[in-house]
């Protein structure tokens, strides 16, 4: 069911409950109004019946026939009033009670008529007639008062019941609205969290998918669309990488040809010279020639090794490590270079950094390469600064290596990680940073550079912490072929 349909359904249910409760309340209100009208009429009748009983007592005291005429007039008025409001009375107390009240009033009217006839004839009503008259009057008054009292109690009961129903209904509707809203929000929130995780993974270059079956609502459509986008981006990335590889082949071929050509030419010239002057050389001179050949051969070996390191990376042994420990081990390796070059070390490592999931030796290779470049860029004086910090926004650990060397011109910064690109005047192959960049990228991290001429250069290495990598746990090791 779509979200809008869920909302419409919940609103329909709430409206239905409100209408139902309103119907009950309206029904009870109509009952209260009906009984209120009856009690108003009954109060008037009770007042009339009370006046009749008082007149009846006056008749027995003073034997005045006119009193009986007055009672008959009051009975007639009461009878007419009851006939006029018969509908209201029957709705309130029912037809049976209305009929009984009329019967009691008719009996009382007969008794009064009988007493009036006796008075007109000059006869006194018998004791039996007086008792029957009093009993009829008392019965009429008591029945009317009992009905009035009963209906007042019923009005109170209806009010109490209505209050209870409205109270429970109110909290029932509030609870239903809260639970249904919570259900919808939880459903949407779960889907949104999955979408956020997926988009974050995509932004980091991991084109993952939400494997579970998408729901039939709008969030399901969003998840399906993002899954499709992740697949398409993954395919596009492969196409782009393939294009880059093809483009890099040309660069590699040109670079390899250039880098290998120089030592090969040197070897060739040394060999030719060696062959021409062999007979005139002393033993030490022959050894010197072979040493120069070996030097050029070693240069070739280093170039080929660096190429192989990048084109065929070694198997990674990923384990949980502490970034600060890796930095300290790196410093042990370059400490002698710092001492010889008279470079000051500034070390600021953050406390309580989250662990990282890395191949310690590969990351150490990157740190050694960058530190060595920094030391060489500063010459015989300067300051090497190494910082570590936690990036809370991305759950990454960042290592910064900053030098006070001559810096790199801005026009070269975009090519600093290209193969065979170097700013060193001699001795550089242009493959160190290229290999380092590949290692960090294969760890799911990033390597970037900032530099200002005559100020210095800073490299920033970011590595994903164990807070965002599920496989990262104590004692767990995984091997990855790249």
Structure described in brief:
It is built from 11 helices and 8 strands.
Characterization of the model:
With 482 residues, this protein is of the alpha+beta class. It has 3 domains: 3-182; 230-312, Helix Hairpins (Orthogonal Bundle); 314-482, Heat Shock Protein 90, CATH 3.30.565. It contains 11 helices and 8 strands. The protein has helices spanning 3-62, 65-84, 86-93, 95-120, 127-203, 218-277, 283-311, 323-340, 360-378, 410-413, 432-442, and strands spanning 316-321, 343-349, 356-358, 382-391, 396-402, 446-452, 456-464, 478-480. The strands form 2 sheets. The chain has a 5-stranded mixed sheet. It has a 3-stranded antiparallel sheet with strand order 3-1-8. Helix 1 (3-62) packs antiparallel against helix 2 (65-84), helix 1 runs antiparallel to helix 5 and helix 9 (360-378) packs antiparallel against helix 11. The longest helix has 77 residues, at 127-203. The protein is rod-shaped. The protein starts with a helix and ends with a strand.
Distance between the termini: 44 Å
Number of strands: 8
SSE-based structural type: alpha+beta
Domain count, please report it: 3
Overall pLDDT: 78
Helix content: 55-70%
C-alpha geometry = rod-shaped
Query: What fraction of residues sit in β-strands?
Result: 5-15%
Largest beta-sheet characterization? 5 strands, mixed
Secondary-structure element pattern, one letter each: HHHHHHHEHEEHEEHHEEE
C-alpha-based Rg, rounded = 53 Å
Helices, by number, come to 11
Strand order of the largest sheet: 2-4-5-7-6
Poorly predicted regions? none
């Amino acid at each position: 069911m779509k979200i809008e349909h869920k909302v419409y359904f919940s609103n329909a249910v709430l409206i239905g409950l409100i209408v139902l409760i309103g119907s009950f309340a309206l029904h009870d209100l109509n009952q209260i109004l009906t009984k209120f009208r009856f009690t108003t009429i009954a109060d008037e009748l009770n007042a009339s019946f009370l006046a009749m009983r008082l007149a009846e007592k006056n008749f027995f005291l003073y034997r005045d026939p006119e009193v009986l005429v007055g009672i008959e007039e009051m009975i007639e008025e009461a009878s007419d009033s009851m006939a006029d409001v018969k509908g209201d009375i029957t709705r309130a107390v029912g037809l049976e009670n209305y009929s009984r009240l009329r019967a009691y009033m008719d009996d009382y009217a007969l008794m009064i008529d009988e007493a009036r006839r006796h008075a007109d004839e000059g006869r006194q009503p018998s004791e039996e007639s007086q008792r029957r008259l009093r009993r009829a009057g008392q019965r009429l008054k008591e029945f009317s008062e009992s009905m009035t009292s009963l209906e007042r109690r019923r009005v109170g009961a209806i009010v109490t019941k209505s209050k209870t129903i409205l109270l429970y209904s109110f909290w029932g509707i509030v609870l239903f609205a809260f639970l249904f809203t919570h259900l919808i929000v939880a459903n949407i929130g779960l889907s949104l969290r999955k979408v956020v995780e997926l988009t974050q993974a995509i932004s980091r270059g991991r084109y993952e998918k939400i494997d579970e079956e998408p729901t039939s609502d709008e969030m399901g459509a969003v998840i399906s669309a993002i899954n499709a986008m992740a697949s398409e981006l993954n395919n596009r990335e492969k196409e782009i990488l393939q294009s880059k590889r093809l483009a890099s082949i040309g660069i590699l071929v040109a670079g390899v040809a250039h880098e290998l050509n120089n030592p090969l030419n040197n070897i060739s010239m040394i060999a030719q010279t060696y062959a021409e002057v062999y007979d005139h050389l002393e033993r030490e001179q022959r050894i010197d020639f072979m040493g120069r050949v070996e030097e050029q051969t070693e240069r070739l070996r280093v170039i080929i090794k660096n190429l192989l390191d990048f084109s065929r990376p070694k198997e990674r042994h990923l384990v949980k490590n502490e970034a600060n420990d890796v930095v300290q081990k790196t410093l042990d390796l370059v400490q002698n270079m710092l001492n010889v070059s008279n470079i000051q070390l500034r070390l600021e490592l953050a406390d309580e950094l989250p662990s990282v999931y890395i191949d310690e030796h590969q990351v150490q290779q990157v740190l050694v390469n960058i530190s060595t470049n920094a030391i060489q860029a500063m010459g015989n004086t300067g300051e090497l600064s190494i910082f570590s910090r936690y990036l809370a926004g991305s759950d990454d650990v960042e290592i910064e290596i900053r030098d006070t060397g001559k810096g790199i011109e801005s026009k070269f910064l975009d090519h600093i990680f290209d193969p065979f690109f170097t700013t060193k005047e001699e001795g550089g192959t242009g493959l160190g940073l290229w290999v380092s960049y590949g290692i960090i990228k294969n760890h799911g991290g990033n390597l970037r550079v900032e530099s200002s001429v005559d100020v210095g250069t800073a490299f920033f290495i970011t590595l994903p912490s164990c807070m965002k990598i599920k496989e990262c746990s104590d004692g767990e090791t995984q091997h990855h072929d790249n």
